[in-house]
Amino acid sequence: MKLKLLTASLLLACGALQAQTVDVSGAWARATVPGQKGTGAFMNITARDGARLVGVSSPVAGVAEVHEMKMDNDIMKMRAVPVLELPAGQAVQLKPGGYHVMLMDLKQGLPKGSTVPLTLRLQDAQGVEISQLVSVPVSTVAPAGSMAGKAADHGAHKP
Ligand SMILES: [Cu+2]
């Protein structure tokens, strides 16, 4: 298990060498309790030139989807969002109660303090599909400001 995580972080470091289609800040995933099979991941995504988020994946989850949570007749409903538009220069918030990355069929527990590698599948302004890796810290609460996201970005830039 430890080896697997190490490989993931190495891949992550390599991914960061490629041009970044989007800036991700304040990323965090909600820690799980034993036996829990699904959780949410949240972040702010800004595409300088505009892009679309067309898919997500993570080695820790059998299934990963972008979801939207909405009140519908006083009932909180969750639905999969096949394409999330990222307008140029606008931060799109993925947060509890709104858009989120749903990690399902979890293959391992996500304890507080661990890190989840997440691949964002994006289409840039030209329609070219690009994968961008994000290192998502696991926590029980949202990070204050975007400090956690900044720290994660910084770590990913190391050779
Ligand atoms: Cu969901």
Main structural class: alpha+beta
CATH class: Mainly Beta
Average pLDDT over all residues: 85
The small-molecule ligands in this entry are: copper (II) ion
The main sheet comes to: 10 strands, mixed
Count of discrete domains:
1
CATH superfamily: PCu(A)C copper chaperone
**Proportion of beta-strand residues:** over 45%
Shape: globular
CATH topology: Immunoglobulin-like
Proportion of helical residues? 10-25%
Low-confidence stretches: 146-159
The N- to C-terminal Cα distance equals 23 Å
Count of strand segments = 10
The radius of gyration computed from the alpha-carbon positions, rounded to a whole number of angstroms, is 15 Å
Number of helices: 2
- Identify the CATH architecture: Sandwich
The ordered H/E elements are HEEEEEEEEEEH
Observed structural traits:
159 residues; alpha+beta; ten-stranded mixed sheet; 16% helix; disordered C terminus; binds copper (II) ion
Please render the helix and strand layout as text.
Blueprint: H1 2-15, E1 23-30, E2 39-46, E3 51-57, E4 61-72, E5 75-80, E6 84-86, E7 91-94, E8 99-106, E9 115-124, E10 129-139, H2 147-157
Parallel strand pairs: 1-10
Antiparallel strand pairs: 1-2, 2-7, 2-8, 3-6, 3-9, 4-5, 4-8, 9-10
Bound molecules: copper (II) ion (CU).
Copper (II) ion binds next to strand 8.
